[in-house]
Write a structure and sequence with these properties.
Order of helices and strands of chain A: EEEHEHEE
Strand order of the largest sheet of chain A: 1-2-3-6-4-5
Oligomer: homotrimer
CATH architecture of chain A: 2-Layer Sandwich
CATH superfamily of chain A: RutC-like
Distance between the termini of chain A: 25 Å
CATH topology of chain A: 60s Ribosomal Protein L30, Chain: A
Number of domains of chain A: 1
Shape of chain A: globular
Helix content of chain A: 10-25%
Chain lengths: 133, 133, 133
């Protein structure tokens, strides 16, 4: 077992010496708090639903690069700036997850990285175990 | 090793396609952010202390269903809406944990799922290792 | 594999029955949300940068006591009270980490334990795997 950095060509890494988007240690994969950004790291904006869809797409790409998929996610932590609209995150999540859903925590924070960022989501996944039931 | 969904008859699962309360992957158990709710998922209300007691009771039931107990919890993340009353969470925790306590993070967030919800707590536990010392 | 409490003589433990600073379960180490405090647990104050430096120093001491180092950290969760100054945390982090950086989540919360506390950071590390690449 070693610790490997997982990079996807479809998910821009931050500038050097800030953080890694994804690390794999044994079967466990840690995904950084992802926000809705394009390949130049510019926020893509949009509703909480639209941003959550972009976040889950970026998460899926990172997990694919790690050799897994969203089926392997066991824990999501969701930070939103307006919890009254959390059903938008729920809708986006219901469109991309299946079977027994990941465990999840969802809280409203006072601010995320930039004013137009409405949602940030990090994840822990366990690969090569057949995914969630 | 497989990923199993852990369900307790004493802890209401959310409606389908939202999240799982608890997943076990190998020896590691992930518990969703729990709030003080009854078997119909209605918030039970009460002080931060009372809500924390309900949360820890639900957590204990899920861990029991997974084959473990609160003795196996290694990490707690506590979100409160009024950090000046955090000693209420501490009191509740001191009544249900023993030995070397779990690691913990406690922060105040701007809002939780519903106005009457004062505390949300998620956990990671490691089972079948004899528990914390 | 057992669960061990990790104590460093250079990092004050909280009073009994609150939380443990650090637990090791197998190769995985869980570090509590750390703030900038001295050996009497008094907040050391200072800028977000200065506080983050103290937090990472405490984290390094705990990981050393566990048999590892900051090279083994795979996940950081950073809570700040003023996200507009987050580059101060970034600067502190860039001074103490190397290679592929840990995954990270950084959010602004409405309050931390005491008014002068500007940053709290918890971590998960995976030891004895050669560290991050």
């Amino acid at each position: 077992m070693t610790i490997r950095q997982i990079i996807s060509p479809r998910v821009a890494e931050p500038p050097p010496r800030l953080w890694s988007n994804c690390l794999r240690a044994g079967d466990t994969v840690y995904v950084s708090g992802l926000t809705a950004r394009d390949l130049e790291l510019a926020p893509t904006g949009g509703s909480q639903y639209e941003q959550a869809r972009v976040v889950f797409e970026r998460m899926a790409q990172l997990l694919a690069a790690a050799g897994g998929s969203l089926r392997d996610v066991v824990k999501l932590t969701v930070y939103v700036t307006d919890i009254t609209r959390r059903d938008e995150v729920w809708q986006a999540r219901a469109e991309v997850f299946d079977g027994a859903f990941p465990t999840a925590t969802l809280v409203e924070v006072s601010a995320l990285a930039e004013p137009e960022i409405a949602v940030e989501i990090d994840a822990i996944a366990v690969l090569d175990q057949g995914g969630r039931p």
